[in-house]
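Below is a filled-in request sheet from our internal design queue. Each sheet records the structural input a requester submitted and the sequence that came back. We keep these sheets so that new team members can see what a complete request looks like end to end.

REQUESTER: design group, bay 2
PRIORITY: normal
MODE: inverse folding
CHAIN LENGTH: 247
BACKBONE (tokenized):
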């Protein structure tokens, strides 16, 4: 694994203490039932402001994307470079094992052979062996009129089936509009929409691509996409934690 991708064990341990405080049985049930689950107050207001304040600092990022140029919507985001900021890297490493347990159970139900290793470092080794070496955690910025089209964050053949977004701004104070939305397409049915209310520091874990649903004849796969509705005023920052790296 690229040494720059490694996170100090002390940082992961500190993040794990924070992550362990949540009721993961309840969160797993939410993920199973709806494809998403909210972790309230994952970050403090100060941590949110510190991360949002990184956006104009070029040295932290490997690329800068303007959504309109690619048909992704309207707004912009920056992909972090390795080494990731301590907080982002620590949370990425600490969240992964909890979500890998859900991901492995989902794959078993969907008849997918892939099983994810116990640690994020081991999973990144697999990504890098497959030529996926570019970090994918990102920092997004929206201003009035911006939105993010429904999409899936798949950056190569090897993709982890869950990801996390953390809202860094306070709705009603820093911005209005800009709701996180998740759509789910079930076979021979119209799409179901889940609008996820978040406050500053809240995180939402959600399915990247597919999840299993129990039907009358066993489990079947549903297809999910996520996006952000139009920002009506102010400025909105979000951190996205994606667990696979990109080609």
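RETURNED SEQUENCE:
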């Amino acid at each position: 694994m690229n040494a720059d991708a490694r996170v100090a064990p002390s940082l992961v341990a500190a993040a794990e203490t924070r992550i362990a405080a949540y009721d993961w049985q309840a969160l797993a049930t939410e993920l199973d039932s709806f494809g998403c689950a909210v972790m309230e107050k994952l970050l403090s207001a100060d941590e949110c402001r510190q991360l949002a304040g990184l956006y104009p600092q070029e040295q932290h990022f490997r690329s800068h994307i303007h959504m309109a140029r690619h048909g992704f919507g309207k707004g912009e985001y920056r992909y972090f470079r390795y080494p990731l900021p301590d907080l982002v890297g620590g949370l990425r490493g600490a969240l992964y094992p909890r979500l890998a347990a859900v991901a492995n159970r989902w794959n078993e139900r969907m008849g997918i052979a892939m099983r994810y290793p116990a640690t994020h470092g081991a999973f990144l080794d697999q990504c890098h062996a497959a030529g996926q070496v570019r970090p994918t955690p990102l920092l997004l910025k929206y201003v009035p009129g911006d939105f993010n089209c429904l999409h899936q964050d798949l950056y190569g053949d090897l993709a982890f089936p869950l990801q996390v977004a953390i809202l860094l701004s306070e709705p009603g104070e820093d911005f209005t509009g800009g709701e996180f939305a998740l759509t789910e397409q079930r076979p021979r049915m119209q799409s179901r929409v889940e609008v996820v209310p978040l406050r500053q520091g809240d995180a939402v874990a959600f399915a990247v691509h597919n999840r299993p649903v129990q039907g009358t004849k066993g489990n079947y796969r549903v297809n999910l996409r996520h996006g952000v509705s139009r920002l009506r005023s102010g400025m909105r920052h979000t951190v996205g934690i994606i667990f696979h790296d990109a080609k």
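SHEET NOTES:
- The chain is about 30% helix and 30% strand.
- The domain at 3-241 is CATH 2.60.120.620 (Jelly Rolls).
FILED BY: M.R.
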